[in-house]
Write the structure tokens for this entry.
Amino acid sequence: MTRITNFIVLFLVLVVLCMGCQEKSSSSGSTTELKRLQGQIVAPLEGTYLYVYKKGMDLYGPAFAVSRATGSDGTFDLSLPEGEYVVVARKRKQGEATGPVVAGDNRSEFITLVVDQDRDEISIVAPVKVGDTRRLSEQADVGQTGISGTIYDSDGNPLEGTRVHVYDHVQMSERPKYVSEKTTPDGSYLIYLPKGGTYYLAARDKFGGPPKLGDLYGRYDQGTIEPSAVIVKKGEILENVNITVTKVW
């Protein structure tokens, strides 16, 4: 009888221990809890995006998280893991979610934000931006200095809706100095420049950060490993600077 009793007690102890192991295992495998962040974009109200960056990220590259465009009351709502972030509100005149913020668009200051149990709401003011060193071609003075050409896809067809990015360094790793308007249905572009000089060109269908999988991207080159320089003289529209873009894999 004593042996049976001891066996039952030992069995119950093992069951309790196993249950504790399962609970611990389940807890350690759970996902990071998200904190809901709500707030309001005060100026402007409608059509503004909130961009959230982790500390140390490129604040002009792809964001860690982006809210949906704000509605008529300017409110946004998104969920983030607890932590420290940098946030900025941006509204572009054309309503795009990506791309450079240029004069006439709206942008807030970069704001350091700690998301924790005590932080669940913020208000942000996004005044009109008055200038930028990187400009779209429509903002450059229309003159006699510039570059024109056609953007083609990998099959040799003219490609509509891409932009030409103009750099002044061969590494092309910094932000582009100038960005063209989107190419027309026949794939052509024309970008005016404030002065002549040596430039390096790339064409792509997306703004911001390095090209990602699925993006269309191509550099102007003449069969060389490095991008080919484009030398533009003052008072000259350099023609037939054509670029072929392919899908990034």
